[in-house]
């Protein structure tokens, strides 16, 4: 069973520039400084001042920040009109970055480590997000697959996300899942490039993924272990992205590990779009 789980998390990225700037909530009342990492136009990934990596919907930012993201992630004049190279490399199981939707669907249907939760005839209606889950549990939970695509429909990111659980299960069931995923990903990719303790539930915010661990694959792609919140439920997620995410500089503590600080940035209310 353990070897199956190790195969389950076969993974893979391109350099992006980091820029520290001030970000504002959608209503403009709150702000915090963070480094811009990546954005697909729908979600943005930042490095907070407390050295945490966070991902959340672009719609939760002020319009000026949304414009800044659009201007700094769209095709430049130098490359306009030229076909951009598709991301390449191992993503998950048999999936490769750069696969189109048809190839992803065909590979998933042939996979022995994931299974569809709806009939294949319904894929056109439901899409692929959330309809495949792992056949085996990890830390007592199944993981569901979600996908991000390039503008021309090529696979750029795969996220394994546990089924959401109640607040009472966060320190027990989700902690167990987080620990097992840490072990599995470390077996695959070695010592993390960055690591932090299991986040306190008070550090989480609705719609936000808070990263605790970062690995780089042999192909220089990135793997992030995250905890997240969806309304009043909680989850653990593994983001396997074709982007290269550079590690932050850890804040030393007396134990030699990354220290926990109070979360900087917006409060849950500030994140309401």
Structure explained in plain terms:
The structure is a single chain. By secondary structure, the chain is of the alpha+beta class. It has one domain. The protein is built from five helices and 17 strands. The strands form four sheets. Strands 2, 3, 4, 5, 10, 11, 12, 13, 14, 15 and 16 form an eleven-stranded antiparallel sheet that branches. It has a two-stranded parallel ribbon with strand order 1-17. The chain has a two-stranded antiparallel sheet with strand order 6-7. The longest helix has 20 residues. The N terminus and C terminus are likely disordered.
Characteristics of this structure?
273 residues, alpha+beta, 11-stranded antiparallel beta sheet, two-stranded parallel sheet, 17 strands, 19% helix, globular, disordered N terminus, disordered C terminus
The gist of it:
This protein has five helices and 17 strands. With 273 residues, it is of the alpha+beta class.
Secondary structure elements and pairings:
Elements: H1 2-8, E1 14-15, E2 19-24, E3 31-39, E4 43-48, E5 53-57, H2 63-73, E6 90-92, E7 95-96, H3 101-110, E8 114-116, H4 123-126, E9 132-134, E10 143-149, E11 155-162, E12 165-166, H5 170-189, E13 194-195, E14 209-216, E15 222-230, E16 233-241, E17 243-244
Parallel strand pairs: 1-17
Antiparallel strand pairs: 2-3, 3-4, 4-5, 5-14, 6-7, 8-9, 10-11, 11-16, 12-16, 13-14, 14-15, 15-16
The largest β sheet comes out as: 11 strands, antiparallel
Q: How much of the sequence is in beta strands?
A: 25-35%
Which ranges are low-confidence, i.e. pLDDT below 50, for 5 or more consecutive residues? 1-17, 75-82, 251-273
Number of strands: 17
Give the domain tally.
1
Number of continuous helical runs: 5
Which of globular, elongated, flat, extended, rod-shaped describes the shape? globular
Structural class: alpha+beta
Order of SSEs: HEEEEEHEEHEHEEEEHEEEEE
The Cα radius of gyration reads 18 Å
Q: Classify the helix fraction into a percent range.
A: 10-25%
Termini gap: 43 Å
Mean pLDDT: 81
